Amino acid sequence: MTRRVTIADIAAAAGVSKGAVSYALNGRPGVSETTRTKILAIAAEMGFVPNRAARSLSVSSAQAVGIALRRSARTIGIEPYFMELISGIEATLSAGSFGLTLQIVGTVEEELEVYRRWWAERRVDGVFLCDVGTSDQRLDFIADLGLPAVAVGGPIEGARFPAVWHDDVEPSRDILEYLYTLGHRRVARIAGIPGLLHTAIRDKAYDDTAADLAFESVTTIHSDYTGEQGAQITRRLLSSAKRPTAIVYDNDVMAVAGLGVAHELGLEIPEQLSLVAWDDSQLCRLTHPALTSLTRDIPAYGAKCAEVLLTLIGAATEAAHQGAETRTFSVQCKPAQLSPRGSTGPAQT
Amino acid sequence: MTRRVTIADIAAAAGVSKGAVSYALNGRPGVSETTRTKILAIAAEMGFVPNRAARSLSVSSAQAVGIALRRSARTIGIEPYFMELISGIEATLSAGSFGLTLQIVGTVEEELEVYRRWWAERRVDGVFLCDVGTSDQRLDFIADLGLPAVAVGGPIEGARFPAVWHDDVEPSRDILEYLYTLGHRRVARIAGIPGLLHTAIRDKAYDDTAADLAFESVTTIHSDYTGEQGAQITRRLLSSAKRPTAIVYDNDVMAVAGLGVAHELGLEIPEQLSLVAWDDSQLCRLTHPALTSLTRDIPAYGAKCAEVLLTLIGAATEAAHQGAETRTFSVQCKPAQLSPRGSTGPAQT
DNA sequence: CAGTATCGCTTAACCGGATAAGTAGCGTCA
DNA sequence: TGACGCTACTTATCCGGTTAAGCGATACTG
Question: DSSP secondary-structure letter at B151?
Fold first, then answer.
């Protein structure tokens, strides 16, 4: 079992003081180039890595950010979204040698408690806020703590910290116009959880677009994003007298479940029913027919979120030293693109 | 922006010294019950939460464990396995108020580097080792570091740290016997990555069982676990002259992809082809027909892994203080159970 | 009643870095 | 030649906890 190397060890080896070593390692003035080179060489040779706790204690930064996910153990795995997001976040974080602390919680109260603890413990320098709601108590809570944060989703009006988001209005319109062009007149949408911001945004975009086109009916039914509900609602829709000729799902998991139900009922896809999924994961390409879906680059999205959070943390650190003011800025990403595949086709006449 | 409370603040408020506060908060002897109660009350009132860095620095523990996953950004999301595992791990960790640090890496070298850094920085007290290979360089590397670790998978002979695993031999036999009873005589298995320990274990279990029964052929083809390869290999198998009447997949994603291919080729499931998946996630119940699969409780498995790691960390801490020796112990979990669903049926005569 | 154990607390050192303040050595310049 | 400034360090303090050691005051004990 190797011993951990401290700056005191390096100082002893180099015949200088701890302070000199610290200056040398951090690229600060105060040591000659000769000494600096020598110290760096010794540090490298000894395999020195600074003790995070010690550094954190003196500079008051954790070099880590946190993400709390509010899902049950059984349902969290099924959605590819989070892992892809985290994967993108990670890519940016590790480039800046930040760590990612993950916590899975059951309720909002637990989530708020986690944020408070992280903040009080100084375990993280900032957090990502997922599943932003239309009226989200976490926003003020975190802003009041003074904890740097980035909302993953938006836009959020009057937010006290930045949001990274992409427009859902245009893609919503794209879907409906696409289906309209294919001749569909009765369209149903199995939407996500009603309280979520992006659900509300899509709801409105849907209604607005529907009003502009001569649909017979455009209905929205809210769900909880699970495959079970997706299947159940699809079954109900397809058993009704005037069943829709196209169904749009707010995520890929429900769309896959919906496809299963269509198979179960013996419906030909896309001849008798067209299906569209939001959030194109690999899942959409595994089914037959493959699911037409709204594609966006989620790892890139996560990377952007991380980038903004790191910038924010940097700014907060600056501000603490120089009293500069922190500006809230939002970042809009490229909207999702419709990827037509086998699950959509002309409506039956 | 609230100020963080330190033990010095509490000491001042209670009119005692920092030391007394520390004793009181940690439930150690050295203060009277009266004083202890008073200090605890003040601490609670002020909302005191200890600074993790400070505590870590003095007690040399991070109160966090790490998990490094070696997957690409695009493929990591699709497998429900990891999120379920992490979810289970989390449940146990947060009960012990440990944090989880997650890192996604691309190569083994990167992964080893992450472990070394975590260890040197004292960022984690222990790690989980996923995707254990048949000859895994990480095992010795981590053991040499003296970093407490738990292998998620096994059994590992002569390991220098514990493994949490479940028997794959019995379930492998279960599948083959089940298919044999249904009259299947030509069975194919699309296996996982050849270097992985559990792939090797299943390979052998398969061969052994096949030798005991009068199959016409039992073939194994290795893959990379992705839906693409699952689909591609399935397509090849089903296009061959003597195509199998049943295919077993080493994970659920490939099985879903295989089902898609079967649909694409117009095969009736299960009349013309039976499909079995390992690792029953919700995915298996979303398709039509639902996939017969090997069910195991992955969150519970993760919880067990975390429990063992925490025990190990506790033991290591003890050992450091008292010089006691650390015992390596392995934990075997309940093997996966076959859940027959619509994707399997009698072989066509 | 002196000797001593125990309680209840304070003091101070320590963990491993960062960093402000202090200082020795040397060149510069009036 | 002495005041001054600069370089290249060293020293000491701090971050916020933990903990060994110290130290009165009280209780116990032979």
Answer: E
Closest by Cβ to B94, choosing from A103, A120, A290:
A103
Query: What is the helix (H) or strand (E) element at residue B152, kind and residue range?
Result: strand B149-152
Q: Please name every residue paired with B104 in a beta bridge, in sequence order, or none if there are none.
A: B69
Q: Which residues contact B19 (CB under 8 A, 6 or more apart)?
A: B30
pLDDT of res. B157? 87
The confidence score (pLDDT) of residue B322 equals 57
Minimum Cα–Cα distance from A229: chain B residue: B286
Which residues in chain A touch residue B53, judged by CB atoms under 8 angstroms apart? 52-54, 56-57, 62, 122
Packing angle of the helix pair B298-322, B80-95 (nearest 10 deg): 40
- pLDDT for A348 equals 86
User: What CA–CA distances, in Å, run from A207 to A176, A186, A204, B22, B252?
Assistant: 10, 14, 5, 60, 38
List the B99 CA – C19 C1' distance (angstroms): 31
**Each residue's pLDDT tens digit, A104-115:** 999 999 999 999
Note the pLDDT tens digit of each residue in B181-199.
Answer: 999 999 999 999 999 999 9
Helix residue ranges, H only, B79-196: 80-95, 108-121, 137-145, 169-181
Length of chain A: 349
Domains of chain A (ranges; CATH) run 7-50 (1.10.260.40), 64-166+300-333 (3.40.50.2300), 169-294 (3.40.50.2300)
pLDDT at B105: 94
d(Cα B215, Cα B189) in Å, to the nearest integer?
13
Backbone angles phi, psi at A56, to 5 degrees: -60, -40
* Secondary structure (3-state) at B62: coil
DSSP state string for B29-92 = SSS-HHHHHHHHHHHHHHT----HHHHHHHHT--SEEEEEEE--HHHHTT-HHHHHHHHHHHHH
- DSSP reduced 3-state for B60: coil
Q: Which residues of A touch B73 (CB under 8 A)?
A: 84, 87-88, 91, 299
Checking if the pLDDT of A325 tops 60, the result is no
Cα distance between residue B330 and residue B83, in whole Å:
23
The pairing of strands B217-222 and B186-191 is parallel
Q: Can you list the residues of chain B whose pLDDT is less than 70?
A: 1-2, 320-328
Q: What are phi and psi of A97, to 5 degrees?
A: 50, 40
Q: Is the CB of B55 under 7 A from strand C?
A: no
Sign, CA torsion A101/A105/A108/A112 = negative
| Distance of A15 CA from D8 C1′ (whole Å) | 14
pLDDT at residue A73 is higher than 80 = no
A187: distance to nearest CA of chain B, Å? 22
- Residues of A whose CB is below 8 A from B77: 80-84, 87, 281-282, 298
Global pTM reads: 0.94
Task: Report chain B residues whose CB lies below 8 A from the CB of A290.
Answer: 260
Q: How far is CA B328 from CA A211, B156, B162, B198, B312, in A?
A: 68, 11, 5, 21, 9
CB neighbours of B131 closer than 8 A, spacing ≥ 6?
Answer: B70, B153, B196
The amino acid sitting at A231 is A
**Mean pLDDT of all residues belonging to chain B:** 93
User: Which of B73, B145, B259 shows the shortest C-beta gap to A299?
Assistant: B73
A-interface mutation test, from B6, B25, B52, B113, most A Cβ less than 10 A away: B52
Query: What residue of B is the nearest CA neighbor of A93?
Result: B103
Quickly count: other Cβ atoms within 10 Å of residue A166's Cβ: 20
* Whole-number Å distance between alpha carbons of B288 and B271: 13
pLDDT of res. A54: 96
- Does residue A321 have a pLDDT over 70? no
